[in-house]
Amino acid sequence: MKCPRCNKNDAVKIQFKDDFSICPDCFEKMRREAIAPHIENRMKHVGVPSRYLGAWLTDFPKLDLDIDKPYFIIGPVDTGKTHLLAALVKEQLLKQKRCIWIKAPMFFADVRESPDRGAKLLKQITAIPYLFIDDLGAERLTDWVFECWYRIIDYRYSEQKYTSVTLNKVDNLDERLFRRLRDMTTLLEMNDD
Ligand SMILES: [Zn+2]
Fold first, then answer.
1. How far is the CA of 21 from the centre of ligand 1 (A)?
2. N- to C-terminal Cα distance for the chain?
3. Could you read off the pLDDT of 20-51 as tens digits, one per residue?
4. For a surface tag, which of 32, 52, 88, 171 has the fewest beta carbons within 10 Å of its beta carbon?
5. How far is the CA of 32 from the centre of ligand 1 (A)?
6. Do 178 and 106 reside in the same domain of the chain?
């Protein structure tokens, strides 16, 4: 049966309130259209700062990105790293993936503030399918923070969970963490032009 929406592809039966037939491509599009009006709320809800809610991948016409790949975005301040990370989380939220966004320095301040809540937060970011870490390396790297990071990153590496990060300077990051992250992401260097 032809897809009633695009008339091109073969339709399959979809279970969604009432059963109906549509091709998988059109179903994906429909889902995106349904979420789009609420997307900024969802972004806010997973932790994206207000300033970046309007970010879209089309803001980066020169970059050829595969949204299913995790990225390691490196570059000086004001090169759009956080903006790009926000555009990436938006794409996953449009696909209804479970995401968490953290800003590294603030996250560890939160964790330290309350040990009970902190343990829960650490567990959450370890297990979440899609993790976005902004400003990695800007937190003070005590032995404890390093150990937390290493455990989280190593687990996510082993379980092949999506983790995209932004980082200002490679020097800011412990070499072991850097190597682990390099192995599980695609490196993307941002610069002024
Ligand atoms: Zn179709």
1. 9
2. 49
3. 889 989 988 888 899 989 999 999 999 999 99
4. 171
5. 14
6. yes
Find the Cα–Cα–Cα–Cα dihedral 164, 169, 171, 176, rounded to 10°.
0
Give 15 Cα–ligand 1 centroid separation in angstroms.
Answer: 16
In a domain, 104, yes or no: yes
Please state the domain count of the chain: 2
pLDDT for position 193: 58
> Cα(28) to centroid of ligand 1, in Å?
9
Indicate whether 23 and 81 sit together in one domain.
no
What is the distance in A from the centroid of ligand 1 to the CA of 9? 5
Looking at the fold, whether 98 and 171 belong to one and the same domain comes out as: yes
| Domain that residue 2 falls in | 1-36
Centroid of chain to Cα 161:
11
pLDDT (tens digit per residue) in 133-172: 999 988 877 888 889 899 999 999 999 999 999 998 887 7
Residue 64 Cα to ligand 1 midpoint, Å, equals: 26
What is the reported pTM? Answer: 0.88
Centre of ligand 1 to C-alpha 29, Å, is 9
Instruction: Name residues whose C-beta falls within 8 Å of residue 24's C-beta, 6 or more positions apart in sequence.
Output: 9, 12
